[in-house]
DNA sequence: CAGCATCCCGCGGGATACTG
DNA sequence: CAGTATCCCGCGGGATGCTG
């Protein structure tokens, strides 16, 4: 997404954000991890539908971006905890704005879609 | 992205937002169209790197979601203008928060990445 | 428990060519 | 000018199985 550097992507670092947050599961994980240190299996349960593979990959990505801290307790069986960093917490805060927008307009958008679809399919195709 | 309805996606309409805004070009187009009614070819130039195909597809999607209004002037040659709707304008406003976050922390994130990569590649692999 | 490795498939999206 | 249509490929991500 940030491969081609265009004037717009330069002026618009939103693209960068989306890169960190992209993928089907990043945000879900961030939100799920927001309520405190959380273990791998906890996340696997809370972020419903995620596969073990994608959980691992996404956690690594978030850790690499400095959004998550991974703490390993060398016990048997192993215990690993993930914690949001400060900037990740800020990010989650910021996402609340988006949430509000979505909640506020979800009805409007749904209606717009139906209108559009009805218009484009007048007869019962 | 919103196919499987999980407890989290229910409680977290961010997923919905991202669905409207998903894709490589949606946000770029919204931003480019924010400065007033804009024509197809204008967008093609301003959103650098976009193909005609993806421009069309993304415009249709945004129109369907009620984020963009498409106005056709039946002249020769044809003239088509795209305008942000109110909710799209609100959305763009909201995205500013994300922008700020990105600008504020881009350095930190870049550093985190380098640290992570260095750690995982100690010798000169 | 918390992973990593492998196989596999769908679809987002690029390149290209044609049209009202 | 503003699209549509077709072909094609990479990669995000699901399923499954193995390990320290």
From TrEMBL, chains A, B:
It comes from the Bacteria. GO terms for molecular function: DNA binding. Pfam families: HxlR (PF01638). Residues 12-110 form the HTH hxlR-type domain. The keyword Transcription applies. InterPro entries: HTH_HxlR (IPR002577), WH-like_DNA-bd_sf (IPR036388), WH_DNA-bd_sf (IPR036390). This is DNA-binding HxlR family transcriptional regulator. It comes from Amycolatopsis thermophila. The lineage of its organism: Bacteria, Bacillati, Actinomycetota, Actinomycetes, Pseudonocardiales.
């Amino acid at each position: 997404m940030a491969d081609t550097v265009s004037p717009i992507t330069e002026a618009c670092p939103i693209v960068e954000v989306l890169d960190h947050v992209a993928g089907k599961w990043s945000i879900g994980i961030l939100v799920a991890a927001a309520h405190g240190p959380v273990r791998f299996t906890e996340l696997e349960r809370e972020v419903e539908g995620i596969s073990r593979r994608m959980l691992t990959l996404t956690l690594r990505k978030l850790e690499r971006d400095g959004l998550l801290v991974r703490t390993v307790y060398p016990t048997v069986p192993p215990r690993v905890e993930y914690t949001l960093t400060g900037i990740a917490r800020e990010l989650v805060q910021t996402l609340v704005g988006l949430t509000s927008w979505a909640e506020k307009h979800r009805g409007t958008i749904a209606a717009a879609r139906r209108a559009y679809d009805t218009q484009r399919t007048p007869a019962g195709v």
